[in-house]
Write a structure and sequence with these properties.
Low-confidence stretches: none
CATH class: Alpha Beta
Structural class: alpha/beta
Strand order of the largest sheet: 5-4-1-6-11-8-12
Radius of gyration: 18 Å
CATH superfamily: Spore Coat Polysaccharide Biosynthesis Protein SpsA, Chain A
Distance between the termini: 44 Å
Shape: globular
Strand content: 25-35%
CATH architecture: Alpha-Beta Complex
Largest sheet: 7 strands, mixed
Order of helices and strands: EHEEHEHEHHEEHEEEEHHEEH
Number of helices: 9
CATH topology: Spore Coat Polysaccharide Biosynthesis Protein SpsA, Chain A
Number of domains: 1
Number of strands: 13
Mean pLDDT: 93
């Protein structure tokens, strides 16, 4: 399966950091955000990755070309931002008529990629989309989901005050090729996945909740929290390794 990582945005909420650093290259515990995605995707047997570029594209291109994964990554440049749905449509030939994964690469996540793919392969009949869900501590800043007893998304509340719950759209999807046709059928130059495509498929989207780490790093507070969380993770891993080495000495 191939994956599209959406990484072209300005990252305006993270100014002034993103004035000089592409949002997908913002460091978290010493590692660019994009590297977390590349390592995580390829470790889970994703075959190829397509990355769209726009703002500070030259940084992203240089970073990808220097990556150990360079031979498995394709780049597509947008002179003007297309919108998430239109990016999918503009690259329909890259997907080759097969199911594909789409992720907003401004999140930091360790979700189970293989588990999401497996869930899509065994999804209820008539569900062309599988969506990652996560629990958020800021429901009003997310797209909140309502599910039925099959874990199908039956309602979607995009960034509303006092939404009914805290299960949010994780902005990671697996799409069947028919979703591309749905985007094309709107006949507009810019189409957004979350506000224009997802609502068309209510009742036909399987939600798979992640119990791992998933955070939008798009604000200074959220970025600071992610940096703190991953620094703590690293220290815990180092301490565990040290204890193991000491026990074996």
């Amino acid at each position: 399966m191939g994956a599209l990582l959406l990484a072209a945005g300005f990252g305006s909420r993270l100014l002034p950091i993103t004035a000089t650093t592409a949002k997908c290259l913002v460091p978290i515990d010493g590692k660019p955000l994009l590297n977390y995605w590349l390592e995580h995707m390829f470790a889970a047997d994703i075959e190829r990755i397509l990355i769209n570029t726009h703002w500070l594209a030259e940084q992203v291109v240089a970073h990808v070309r220097a990556s150990r994964f360079a031979s498995r990554i394709d780049l597509t440049h947008e002179d003007e931002l297309l919108g998430t749905g239109s990016t999918v449509l503009d690259n329909r030939d890259w997907f080759r008529g097969s199911p594909f994964l789409v992720a907003h690469a401004d999140n930091l996540s360790d979700f189970d990629v293989r588990g999401l793919v497996a869930a899509h392969e065994t999804r209820p009949r008539g569900h062309p989309i599988t969506m990652l869900g996560f629990r958020t501590d800021r429901p009003s800043s997310c797209g909140i989901l309502e599910l039925d007893d099959r874990s199908s998304v039956v309602a979607f509340h995009e960034k509303v005050a006092d939404p009914p719950g805290n299960l949010a759209n994780g902005a990671v999807y697996i799409f069947e090729p028919e979703i591309i046709d749905a985007i094309a059928s709107l006949g507009r130059p810019q189409v957004d996945l979350s506000t224009e495509i997802i609502p068309l498929f209510l009742g036909r989207i399987l939600c798979v909740e992640t119990h791992g780490y998933h955070r939008d790093i798009g604000t200074p507070d959220s970025l600071a929290q992610a940096r703190s969380d991953f620094a703590a993770r690293r220290r815990a891993a180092e301490a565990s390794t040290h204890r193991l080495q000491k026990a074996m000495a």
